[in-house]
Amino acid sequence: MAGQLSDDELSAALAGEPSGFSAVYAIISPAVLGYFRARGVEDAEGLTQDVFVDVLPKLAKVTGGHRGLRTFIFSVAHARLVDHHRRAERTPYLAEYDPLDDTRCAPSAEDEALGSLGGMTDSLSRLNDEQREVLVLRIVADLSIEQVAGIMDKSPGAIKQLQRRGLSALRDLVTEKDHAAS
């Protein structure tokens, strides 16, 4: 059995004297620590500290001498253990993420964007070079008719005509695909 508090140390602890509390801690904390370790608590030292932090302000109210003090401390320890296990049950299990084990499959935003452009790219490739260039500069690059005319060294009227013909050809290609799909 662990050491026993002297009557003087017990009286000092119950009177709230620091030396008395130090003696209580030195003599009883190893038993509380062993109790937590025997019950499988990972951070037994931390939980032991929590017990004595709770016990300190309540020491003056303890009755029953040595046995009463020991019973009180272990009742606090038991309550802390129950709280610890309840908290552990409610805490979700955290596992490290390993991308190699992840069976979910989702395309990246880039893949989706390029995939949605895939059909459009195919349709654009069926236009003549000038129509394709005008549509890409106007729609994708978001340039004005005047800007596209300057880049392609054509008049704004010619760019408008190429754009109109290119959009008309794209509409026909998309309509053709829709009819083929149904």
TrEMBL record:
RNA polymerase sigma-70 region domain segment(s): 40-91, 124-171
Please indicate which superkingdom the organism of origin belongs to: Bacteria
Keyword terms, alphabetized: DNA-binding, Sigma factor, Transcription, Transcription regulation
NCBIfam families referenced in this protein's UniProt entry, alphabetically: sigma70-ECF
Instruction: Indicate the family of this protein.
Output: Belongs to the sigma-70 factor family. ECF subfamily.
What is the protein name stated in its UniProt record? Answer: RNA polymerase sigma-70 factor (ECF subfamily)
Where does this protein come from, organism-wise?
Arthrobacter ginsengisoli
Q: What is the lineage of its organism?
A: Bacteria, Bacillati, Actinomycetota, Actinomycetes, Micrococcales
